[in-house]
Every structure is written in structure tokens, then in C-alpha cells.
Amino acid sequence: MIVRPKAHWFRMLFAWENSVQNTILAPLAIIVALSLAAVWGYRRSDAFFLCLSPVPFSLIGVALAIFASFRNNACYERYWEGRKQWGALTATTRDLVRFAVTVPRHAGASPPPSDAHPQARHVVTLLTAFVHVLKHQLRGTDPADALRALVGDAQAGEILRLAYRPHHLLLCVQRQMVRWHRDGGLSDVLLATGLAHLDKLNQAAGACERIRGTPVPYPYEVLLHRTTYFYCVLLPFGLVESIGWATPIVAVFIAYAFLGLHTIGGELEDPFGQDANDLPLDALAVHVERAMREALGDDAWPPVPVPDARYRLD
After folding, report:
1. What is the pTM of this model?
2. pLDDT digits over 28-40, tens only?
3. Which of 131, 152, 200, 219 lies most in the core, judged by the most C-beta atoms within 10 Å?
4. Dihedral through CA 11, CA 14, CA 17, CA 23, nearest 10?
5. CB of 175 within 8 A of CB of 169?
6. What is the 3-state secondary structure (H, E, C) of 59-127?
7. Signal sequence: where (predicted)?
8. Residue (of 56, 52, 60) closest to 237 by Cα position
9. Whole-angstrom Cα distance, residue 171 to residue 177?
């Protein structure tokens, strides 16, 4: 995700870093070349065979803009839902940390307020591992190093052999809650409350997996991609008769708008990826871990994530 201070309106006109220009620079260069070819051909001969009427481009442009807006709305809805689910996941994990640290009664143990019972500490560690493992699963990366640092080599090896690792970590937390209940540390009502929080985590993880596993239908993507590029390639030949030497400027400006919207929609379609405009899952996971370690009274916290020199927060 790009996180940068608001720039002056004039500076925004020339903003280049982390914008879509880098992605669509090659297609725009092709549009410039085609525009110059159209102007050259039209000036050399009035019967230039690719001098087209601008009327169809007006009609197609309106339809294409509506079509592109529908796709971008669908992609942004996926991004927005992913952000909401991670917000719910963050709040629920904090609730569960407070629950594990303060609610269960541990037989024969009276830890000071600045400390936590080893069983509660283990639950918090499992919840931290759950957040990191879910992040890696959504991004398709390897969680081995994060797991080993949190739960040790033995348990990490056991978890890495599984297909649904976040679900297994929630299962471990639920088993600990059930043990607390059997030992008299949790009443029936408190057990139900803890399990309800686990259900919320499971629902948030399932929603994220649904977004990750069900992209925008492929024929929908292909149709818009072909239509956009075909329209932008032919546009200079529909403008050259009416605007002449201004064709390269106008054609590139219109192509920039359509191709830029198309590129942004493609990035937002998978909000859990590692593109510049995707959700900063690394930073979100670290913030959750910091909140958990603070609840445990630990002094060693991971550093606060900050954007890099290019204003990018991963």
C-alpha cells in the first residue's frame, strides 16, 4: 500500500513514483507512435485508408467507460471487503488476548498483573501464529520462518505438514479453552463467549480465502482487456481528421485514463497480493503481534512498520 502525505495539487500533476504510469508506459508509447503515423499518413494523403469516422468512437467510449467502471467497482468491493475482514480479525484477536490473559482461573496459580500464566501465553502465541500464517497463505508465501520463531521447530514442523494451517491453530486454541472448562477455569457461559470469538476469526479467515480463491471471472477480464486496447489502438485514426496535430496529445490522454483504470482494477482484484496498491498485510500482522505482546507484558516488541523511501508499506 502507498502511504504518503497529501501533496499539493500542482505536484500531483507530475507525481510519477508508485503511480500506474510505470505499468502502462509501453502501451502509451505505442499509442504515441500510432498517433504520429496517423498524422503523417493523413497529411500525406487525404485518402489515407485508416482515417476513420470519430462518431463510433464516441459511442464505444461511453460504453467502455461504463463497462470499466462496473469492473473497477467490483474489484474495489473485493479490496474493501478484504480490509474490513482484516479489521475484524484484528479486533477479535485483541478480544481473545484479553480473554485468555484475564478470564481463566488457573488452579494453584496467582500470577502478578504484569505477567501471564504459561497456558494463556501459549494461547496468545498461537493467535499470533494464526495471523502470520493466514497472511502467508493469502499471499502464497512460506510461513516457515515466522512459525519457527513463534512456536518452535517441533510444532512448526507439525503445522507446516498441514494443508489448512490457520484452521489448525484455531483448533489448538479451542482445545486449550475446552481444557480450561474441564478444569473449572471457565464456566459454560465464558466458554461459549471464547468459542464465539474463535468463530469470528474463522469467518474472517474464510472470507479472506473466498476473496483470494474466487477472482473476477476470466472471460469478463479478457473482454474488457481486448476492448480497451483495441479501442486505444484505433483511437488515433478516428481523431486525426478532426483534430490533426493534436491527435497524439488527445489520444494519449484518453488512453491513459482507460489503461490506468484497467491497471488499477487488476491490482485491486487481489487485495492480498504484493502489488503497490494491495493491503499491507505485513504491517497489519505486526500491529496485531505488538498488541498481543503488550497484553502479555513483554518488553520485546517488533518495530512499528513504516513506509519505505518510496512510500510503500508492505
Report:
1. 0.85
2. 999 999 999 888 8
3. 131
4. 150
5. no
6. HHHHHHHHHHHHHHHHHHHHHHHHHHHHHHHHHHHHHHHHHHHHCCCCCCCCCCCCCCCHHHHHHHHHH
7. none
8. 52
9. 10
Nearest-angstrom CA–CA distance, 293 and 303: 12
- Residue pair 236/38 in contact (Cβ under 8 Å)? The answer is yes
Percentage of residues in the chain having pLDDT higher than 70: 92
**What distance in Å separates the CA atoms of residue 275 and residue 150, rounded to the nearest whole number?**
27
Q: Distance (Å, rounded) from C-alpha 38 to C-alpha 44?
A: 10
Q: Taking Cα atoms as reference points, which of 28, 73, 15 lies closest to residue 268? A: 73
Compute how many other C-beta atoms are within 10 angstroms of the C-beta atom of residue 136. 19
Rounded Cα distance, 102 and 104, in Å: 6
Q: How far is CA 21 from CA 51, 120, 252, in A?
A: 28, 50, 12
Q: What's at 314, amino acid-wise?
A: D
